[in-house]
Amino acid sequence: MLNQTNDLLNSTDNGLYDFCSESNFSIPVFNFTQTKSIDETPLHSPMRMNLFVIAHVGFFLFNFINVFAILFIHGYIFKRLWHNHLMHTALCACACQMLSCWCSIYRYNHCEEFGTAARASVWTGLVAYIFMNYTMAHIFCNRQLNKNVNCVILVWFWFLSAIACGITGDFYWKKYDFRFFRYYILGSTIFQLISYISVLWSFSKKDIRISRNSPLKVWVTDALMKRMLHVAIVTIVLTMGYAYSLRPILQYPGTGITFSVMVLVVTFVGEMDFMEEGAIARSVPGCGVTENTLTDPEMAPLNNNNTSIPAV
User: Fold this and answer.
1) Domain tally for the chain?
2) Which pTM does this prediction carry?
3) I need a labelling partner for 300 at 20 to 30 A (CA). Which of 46, 125, 229, 249 fits?
4) Domain with 227 in it: what CATH number?
C-alpha cells in the first residue's frame, strides 16, 4: 500500500491515469450525461454502480444539510424549532430520507441494486414522504373552509397510499422493483407543487399572514414572502424536469432539493397564523380576513363600530 501511494504521488498526469487504469478503478468514474438506461449503464456494471452511488451521495448530502440546519440553526441559534410544528415533521422527513439514501448508497456500493437494502430504502423513503405529505397537507389546506377535516383526509390518504405502495411493491418486486415507489414520489412532488401554489394564493388574498407572535413578523414583508414562494414553485418545477431527464446525477440530488425547499417554506409558513395553537381555521367568505383577525391589534380598524363584516 505504501509503495502504491508513493507511485501515485510521484506520478505525472499521464502516470496518474495509467496508475488508476491498472488498478481496480474504472476510468472515468462516471459520466455526467449518462442516463440510467440499461443500454447505457448495464446492470451490475461498475459504471452503473459508480453513477448511482455518486447520485445518492448528493441526495444524502442535501438532507444531511437539512437536518443540520433544522437542529442547529432553527433549534439552537434562533430557538424556533419548538415553536414551529411543521418543522418537526420536516425534520422527521429529512432524517428518514437520509436513512433511505444510506441504504441506497450501501446497495450500489456492494453491487446489490435489488437486494434487501433496496427494499429497506423503499420503506424508509416511504416513511420520509409520509412526513413530507403530512407537512404539505397543512400547507395546502392553510385557511380553507373545513380545514381540519380536509387535512385529516389528506394525511390518511397519503399514509394509506404509502402502505399500499410498499406492500404492492414488495409483492411484485421481481417484476416491477421500484416502479410503484417512483409513482408515489411523483404524486407527492405534484402535491408539493400544488400546496405551494395554494399557500401563495391564500397569502396573496391576505387570508393568511405571519403570526403576530412570531419574530419573523418584524422583517418578513409581503413581497419577500411572495418571492420565496415563487422560488419554491419554480424550483419544484425544475426538479420535475431533472427527473424527466432520466439522468441519475440530476434526478437524485434534484429530489434532495425538494426536501430543502420544504425546509425553506416551512421556516416561514410554519410561523403563520393558521398554524397557531387554537387558531380559528375558518375564513369569513368574501372579505379576505379571518375571524381571528378581529382580535389582532394590527387590524384594530376592523373592531370599531363603523366597520361591518359581511354576513356568512
Assistant:
1) 1
2) 0.80
3) 229
4) 1.20.1070
Report yes or no: 267 and 88 within 8 Å, Cβ to Cβ. no
Does the residue 196 lie in any domain?
yes
pLDDT digits (tens, 9 = 90+) for 180-203: 999 999 999 999 999 999 999 999
Q: 308: which residues sit within 8 A by CB, 6+ positions away?
A: none
- pLDDT for 13 beyond 80: no
Residue 28 in any domain: the answer is: no
Distance CA(142)–CA(210), nearest Å, equals 12
Please state, in angstroms and rounded to a whole number, the distance separating the CA atoms of residues 312 and 304: 19
The answer as to whether 5 is a domain residue is no
- To the nearest whole percent, how much of the chain has pLDDT over 70? 78
Neighbours of 102 (CB within 10 A): 18
94 within domain boundaries: yes
* Grid cell at residue 59: 441526495
Q: The domain containing residue 80 runs over which residues?
A: 43-281
Distance (Å, whole) CA 213 – CA 272:
9
CA distance 146 to 291: 14
Task: Assess contact for 37 and 246: CB atoms under 8 A.
Answer: yes
Model pLDDT, residue 76 = 95
